[in-house]
Amino acid sequence: MEDNQEDEYLLLSGIQHFRFCKRQWAFIHIEQQWEENVRTVEGQHLHRKADQPFVKEKRGDRILVRAMPVKSDTLRITGVCDVVEFVRDDAGVAIAGTEGKYIAYPIEYKRGKPKKGDEDLLQLAAQAICLEEMLLCRIDSGYFYYHEIRHRVEVKLTAELKDKVMSIVTEMQDYYKRRHTPKVKTGSFCRNCSLQHICLPELMNKRSVKSYIEGKIKE
Fold first, then answer.
1. What is the pLDDT of residues 169-205, one digit of tens each?
2. What is the 3 state secondary structure string of the chain?
């Protein structure tokens, strides 16, 4: 029996959580805990338009597919692309049920504006890896549509970026197999975490549990 059950695959969206904080990712994807804050609610609202199950829309030489399921059997990850835009091009690949050949471009919808970190970029690169494996093609670029600036930004999906995704997913798979929730250094970013009350980052520094409790009593 082949070991390829999709319920054992990691969620592609977890790459962004993992890059933000490995401990946050473990709480969500291993321990199945979640708390919503303003950021997560706004993000869900923004995705509603894109998340219309597998809707195809043809616009001239372009085909837009919304909420397209993707997966990589090599990396054992699965997820959903907000939008995949197929642009007709003789250098592309054939798409079932359509005439001609197309080049695929993954498009992610994000609240706010471009981030300083690379978590969004890694998530988009992971989508490209899945599409490359599914369509037997090469994807060199994709797009982000940022709600705050209201236009899309093209990004290059390089081999180095894809290699980084593979390395990160390998680490995620290791934690997942061991059901291990790692400890991490705390920082100002903890204030923006949806799981700050579950995580209790105060317990993760060098202070003892006793000193933590005594500090809370004094407060």
1. 999 999 999 999 888 777 777 777 777 777 754 544 4
2. CCCCCHHHCEECCHHHHHHHCHHHHHHHHCCCCCCCCHHHHHHHHHHCCCCCCCEEEEECCEEEEEEEEEEECCCCEEEEEEEEEEEEEEEEEECCCCCCEEEEEEEEEECCCCCCCCHHHHHHHHHHHHHHHHHCCCCCEEEEEECCCCEEEEEECCHHHHHHHHHHHHHHHHHHHHCCCCCCCCCHHHHHCCCHHHHCHHHHCCCCHHHHHHHHHHC
